[in-house]
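Handout, page 2. Input:
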Amino acid sequence: MNNRIVSNMKILNIAICDDDIGAIANIDRLINRYFENKTTRFKTYKFSSGSSLLQSDVDLYDIVFLDIKINEESGLDVANELNNLGCTAVLMLVSQYHQFLPDGYRVRAFRYLLKQSIDAVFDTEMDAAMEELNLKKRQFTFQVYNDTFHVDYDDIIYFMSSRISIYYIII
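Output:
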């Protein structure tokens, strides 16, 4: 797992699922390059089968890179199962083949990346994924002295004020 440390910021969890170890290493390298000069903390989780991804805590992931064909498994079936499990991650399908592109829409993939050109388009597609993630996971940001904190709106039950203090109750 990789991560960059910046205080009080949420960790971005990224899953990579592919049966090709070289493809996993390449996507991991691209992720590290993308975040190299950014302050975002992140962790990558690597899976060589769809079943191992599905057996993990899928609610943890913010972005999932998923190969269309993983050994004998269909990445599209894995994507469907992720959706059935309520996974809200930004889904980035990865493949060597153009012909599965229309199927990506059926599983609500955010992007369809071709392995042959992934290096050239990765940063642009990650920018779009990060923007989508920000739209999906809106956060309440506040500062106490010099520390900045972020709380997902979905986790806030209510706010309460008492004179000069404001309290927030979260799940």
